[in-house]
Amino acid sequence: MLFLLKETGVLMEGHFLLTSGRHSDRFLQCSQLLQYPEYTAEVCRMMAKPFDNNSITAVIGPAMGGVILAYETARVLKARALFAEPAESKMVLRRGFKLAEEDRVLVVEDAVTTGGSVRKVLDLLKTIDVKSVGVSVLIDRSGGKVDFGLPAHYLISMNIDSFDPAACPLCKAGIPLQKPKN
Hints:
single chain, 182 residues, 8 strands, 6 helices, globular, alpha/beta
C-alpha cells in the first residue's frame, strides 16, 4: 500500500495546513491516488472487505475526500452511495439524498487526523436515527489515536505529527505554509 502512495504522489513533504487547522510536515493528498480508477477499485475492495457481512445498505463519506470512496465502496458492497456536505459547523445531506431508519450505513473517508469530518457525518447519522455499522478509512494519520466508538478499519495507519499553529516548529523556522487543498 505504501508503494501506491509513493507511486501516485499521495505523500508530500513540506509545511502544510490541515483541514483540522493544525500544521504538519507531511501531507497526504489522497486525490492523487483516486485519479486512477484501477487503484481506487482495489483500495475500495480492501476498505469494504471487513464489512461485507454486515448487510450494509448505504455508504456515505464527507465531501470531498469521501465522495469517490463512498461510490466505489458502495459498488463493491452492492449498496447506495451518498456524500455529506459541510454546512456551517456540521454535515448535511443535500441533492435529494435520504436515509431511512432501516438503513445500515458504513462511513468512509480518505484520511483522518483528528477524525473531525467522520465525527460530523456520524453526528448527522444520529439525527436521522440510522444504524452506523462502522468506519473504513484509507489512511489513519493519528497512529491509532482516533476512536469513533464503532468498528473501524484503516488500510494504513501512520503516525504523522501535527502541530497547533501557535506552537508549530515549521512556522518558527520560517518555512512557508502551503494549503494543498486550494
